[in-house]
Specification:
The structure is a homodimer.
Chain A: H1 8-14, H2 21-32, E1 35-37, E2 52-58, E3 61-66, E4 72-78, E5 83-84, H3 86-91, E6 97-100, E7 104-110, H4 111-120, H5 122-148, H6 151-168, E8 172-173, E9 176-178, H7 183-190, H8 194-206, E10 210-213, E11 216-219, H9 222-229
Antiparallel strand pairs in A: 1-7, 2-5, 2-7, 3-4, 3-6, 8-9, 9-11, 10-11
Helix pairs in contact in A: 4-5, 5-6, 6-8, 6-9, 7-8
Chain B binds a DNA duplex (30 and 30 nucleotides) through helix 8.
Chain lengths: ~230, ~230
DNA sequence: CGAACGCTTGATGGCCATCAATCTCTGTGG
DNA sequence: CCACAGAGATTGATGGCCATCAAGCGTTCG
């Protein structure tokens, strides 16, 4: 029995259902064809219809929309183990752009392939859809962040949620996580200016709640931080 | 051939796919058992798991979450033809509360029933899921409203989207729609204070863009309004 | 070494929250 | 029929949060 270390996707789905070894094997095969992506080129453009979904195996990307005035709202970040364009494939609608943040590797899954697996392995389908639904629920949390929290709470809450997500795939814990985002990314996600994000991060750092620095988010006091963010 | 006037749900799904008469009949039967709901009582509470979904046949409800500090963020409004708790049924997660805004009538659809119809009539399933996905996409638009538009644009854009949705089910057009919302509802949806919503509505009225008054939203100049909202 | 990018900090001002008061409208009961 | 209560709408005054403009610093990379 060789038991290679689980991929992020396998770790994530394991949180929803115990997977049979055959199911794990299917997942491993899907991700075997992982290939690098040219940084800076959009995978999926606004409104475009795609025949494939992608499993993100390495790196981070952002999903965003651009308004007329040119400013950008980041709807969500995707991290290893997340699907890209799953809804586009299943429902033939794609409504936002995707841009790599780091060097990225993805495994392409054709629409036909995905549907075939879904019908032959319904338990796997349920786990995938459950995970996808959980990610969509995070968009709702994000909405509440922006609508009803001030800048500091919003920032703290957002980074905590991100940490929770990364923990699910083994890329973070209660002490923090590696984070390739710039303060500009955070600003575009939180609906703030980059200048103000900087001030808020300083405040959080001076209150020993969290430290956002050079590719790393450190939770200086996890419990107090949770209390602060709500 | 009797051809009763189509229900909101039938009108909405017809926008996505041509339905066979057998499929229309299934929809009609589902909604036949419509019953009134006691106003003021929540249908689904935060975190609760339900075994049923509901089709909203009459009236409006809101989906919202309440923060620690007690203020409320309305995530979305549901109007006739919309499903309530569809995701809860399919995925066993329910993440927000639902509250009636007007007198409401719903048809209950059990989880088993829904799944049975989905497997026997895949085209119908596709139409339902497509419509549901479209509604989820509106949450993303809503996120951008709150994150990147000022109060006036935000309000205008939101009411325009609502008008578009209602037109789909025959309850509105380019001149406007009947609207039971109070300014407090709008404030909770837009992440603004009720006082400021009032000022913004006055501004929009004085610029002859739209009029929000006593149960009716009137688009005074649809094209200019679209240009204004983006 | 220069340019680009990201981070940091100060000064100014505007958008919108908050507090407060008044007004209208509706429904209710004496 | 009128008094009253309550919800919703409206308007003014004040202030705070955060955007914007501007300048300077550190690091990376061609």
């Amino acid at each position: 029995m060789h038991q290679p270390s689980p991929t992020p996707l396998e770790r994530k789905l394991s949180a929803f259902a115990v997977l049979a070894s055959e199911e794990r094997e299917i997942l491993t095969n899907l991700q075997g064809r992982s290939r690098p992506i040219v940084v800076g080129r959009d995978l999926v453009h606004q409104g475009q219809e795609k025949q494939s979904a992608y499993i993100l195996t390495k790196g981070w990307v952002s999903s965003y929309k651009v308004s007329m005035e040119g400013d950008r709202q980041i709807v969500d970040f995707q991290v290893p183990g997340d699907f890209l364009g799953l809804r586009s494939v299943l429902l033939k609608t794609s409504d936002h752009s995707i841009e790599p943040i780091t060097h990225v590797e993805v495994a392409e899954v054709s629409s036909a392939e995905l549907l075939s697996i879904f019908s032959s392995h319904p338990r796997l389908a349920a786990a995938v859809l459950w995970a996808a639904s959980r990610d969509e629920a995070m968009v709702v949390e994000h909405l509440i962040d922006i609508g009803r929290r001030n800048a500091a709470e919003r920032t703290a809450h957002f980074l905590l949620e991100l940490g929770t997500r990364l923990s699910l795939v083994g890329l973070g814990d209660r002490t923090g996580f590696e984070c390739p985002l710039t303060q500009y990314h955070l600003a575009d996600a939180l609906g703030l200016s980059a200048v103000h994000v900087n001030r808020v991060l300083r405040q959080l750092r001076e209150e020993h709640l969290l430290t956002f620095r050079r590719n790393r988010v450190t939770f200086d006091a996890y419990d107090r931080l949770v209390a602060f963010a709500g």
